[in-house]
Amino acid sequence: MKVQKIKQFSVFMPNKPGALSRLGSLFFEKGINILGIASEVSDDSGLVRIALEQDADISAILSKAGLSSVETNILSVEVEDKPGELLRVTSALAEGKINITTVYGTSVAGSNTSRILIAAQNIDKALALLEEIAAKS
What we know:
The chain is of the alpha+beta class. The protein has helices at residues 19-30, 58-64, 85-95, 123-136; strands at 2-14, 34-42, 45-52, 68-80, 100-107, 113-120. It has 4 helices and 6 strands.
């Protein structure tokens, strides 16, 4: 297991054709890799959560494009792509009394690694707890 703290940006966007493509082009133009993306849509607006590899001034990039965003720290947890890994991570956080507020992730067929992206109420405590578990495995 590999655990690291990364930045997530919650971007408020219109729910219309091309909006997500426009967001993606902002990062492509700057050579910034997207680690994870999730969205929620409500009528004519949407919220896109995006986790990024680089620590560039993302807020400035989004602001310059006319997009409002909120920056938070989340955890990127890389685990083996096998049954039970999500359970192992979430059970450890539950036992540590850490509340998960957002989770999303993926794996790629043929790959041995999955990435879980986790926002929690006490991110530093969650990081320390998962790093302790990673050191034991």
